[in-house]
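Worked example 2:
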Amino acid sequence: MRVHLAGYNVDTAVLSELLEKDKTRQDVTPEVISAAYARISRDPRSIGEIRKEARQEVEKARKSNSTIIFKMGHHSVAEHAVFNFDIVGVSRLAMEEVEKFRLASYTEKSQRYITLDKDYVLPQEIEEGGFKDLFIETVVRQNEAYHELLVQLKEYVFVKNKALAQDAKNHNLLEGWAKEDARYATSLATESQVGLTINARNLELLLRRFASHPLAEIRQLGQAIYGQVADIAPSIVIFHQANDRDTKTYPELKKKVSGLLKNTKALHSLKAGEEVKLVEFTKEGDCVVAASLMHSASGLDFESSYKVTKKLSLKEKTELFKTAWRNMQFYDSMLREFEYVNLTFDIVLSAACFGQLKRHRMATITALPYNPDLGITVPESIKAIGQEKYLRQIVLASERAYGAIFKKMPLAAPYVLTNAHRKRVLIRVNAREMYHISRLREDAHAQWDIQNISRAMTAQAKKVMPLVFAFAGGKDTYNETYKRIFGTLPKVTEAILPSSRKIRQEA
């Protein structure tokens, strides 16, 4: 056996220094890796020889990439080329479009941990539409409210958590709690930044989507990203222009559905507790997962496994699940057999909360535009300091600006709404992903808004699949849940125990 590290991410500053030393080099491009790996299936030589040839003959490698991707349709070749982008000065609204792509990695500036300045994006549509003054006036007022609320929330958080506040090491944590609630007053136009890692195949998809997007900020972002890679990797980023599928499909669907629903009115009013609704799920989910476990362990076909499972007693099925869980630690994912059952939730949540839910990219998520008719989410801490009325005044001013802008340019109007405003989301998860959401978002360290949403999702999942989700819960309660099921604590190494205790203590 022999393993060789063929390449890895290198900062462009280092690459620039390399090119500066030798201006004749042509091989400083991820295309050579793609071209070399593309030939593995048909070239008997060692991979090292193939890569060497690709580096020496870059134009030949590019031609090979184009032929294999464009003519032969093997787009997976482009996945061997990976790019890192610093994306700076993009609105929170636009960031939702950036982070839609499943097979990419993102690390975004957090409004929970960083004190916001007064930076915001002025959308082209709003400036050209004659709403610049109204927009700026509204956003400035929102930002002033953020800083006013932050001062009061810091004092409230430190007083409420006196024990934690006594240790200076906890001050950043406590300030973060204040920041995450103050941000509910800020707009979706607030500037953010993100580090994006994406392979060329998915980059091409992103560029097509952005080129077809109705908002100017998204189109301009796509153009800026393409400008960074056009000369470096022309042979593996080919289909990047706007197309009819992305430009026309949803507008045509909207027109068609509008005709079908011309006599139907949407119900926007919400009762307490209705923010999360389980609207569809795999029937007999406990049996399906149990049968899948049996199928993997027995060699029986699934149909036979399912028939056997249906005849098992509750105790026998419970023991089957316990066997699947017994050797797990809090950081382990569920076995893949848990992916054979699904749940679909209709959720109404704040922009602040959606910023976290959208990161679960293995789920299927479709989100409607932000809608003031759905109300707002008010942090309990803002109620506690007596500033709910003030926040609602900011929200009302934001909605007046939204209404004025919406009449002329509905797609750009959400820029002026706040993190407290809500949207409706349809999310479909398999049980394995639901466990991931539960472990991460129900943990005491998670932000309260996403805790509430994920806790409601888990509670409803347990009602329809009690065995499948018997082990669900946040990381901080993992040991207690394990002990309840098995009667003993999980076996963990000494290296893990301190971090587990730390999670509980900090939470």
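Residues 12-80 form one domain. Confidence is low (pLDDT under 50) at residues 493-507.
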